[in-house]
Description:
Layout: E1 2-8, H1 13-24, E2 29-36, H2 43-49, E3 54-56, H3 65-77, E4 83-86, H4 95-100, E5 105-109, H5 121-128, E6 132-139, E7 149-156, H6 163-186, E8 190-193, E9 196-199
Parallel strand pairs: 1-2, 1-4, 2-3, 4-5
Antiparallel strand pairs: 5-6, 6-7, 8-9
Helix pairs in contact: 1-6
The structure holds glycinamide ribonucleotide (GAR).
Amino acid sequence: MKKIVILISGRGSNMQAIIDASLAQKWPVNIAAVISNRTDATGLQYAASKGIPTAVVVSKEFSSRDAFDTALQSKIDEFAPDLVVLAGFMRILTSGFVDHYAGRMLNIHPSLLPSFVGLNTHQQALDAGVKVHGVTVHFVTAELDHGPIVAQATVPVHDDDTEESLAKRVLLQEHIIYPWAVRQFIEGKLSIVDQRVRISQ
Ligand code: GAR
């Protein structure tokens, strides 16, 4: 059975969608731990309510990015995961950390990458005047919000959209494609060829 560790920084609705899908669809998976970099991440409570071990490695207690990532890596590796799932984990990661989990770390980003990297993606989309926006699940590489794309979903942008209304529409899609993508990994269906993800049937 594959083991996964989920990293969160906040409410953890994507984490919840993955936990719920894994239970409802009886995935052959052990969600070994949910780890946060913030003690006030509300998603930790949901994970605990499902009997999943939780841990916090407080990022602001470390003097450097390297020191934090080293501590986080040690904590993650206690659970020996096959896959690390970043679910609203709001940290820029060092290349050493990313390399350690190469090919076994996924992220969800609320835009159609490569458009709108970084923060405030919905406002970026509104400012750009795009008619279609969306969400991307990708393997993590050292470059922020880049890496081989596993799945994307699109939503329309309406004339009267606000950042909030657009975020809400995108989040509904996040909760569909992230569990789907994680399941493909767990079932061994993903491979990376020339920086592109192939999904076997
Ligand atoms: C989600 O919208 C996710 O795509 C985004 O943070 C939110 C977390 O929500 N992630 C990023 O912006 C990463 N760059 P959640 O805690 O409810 O899953």
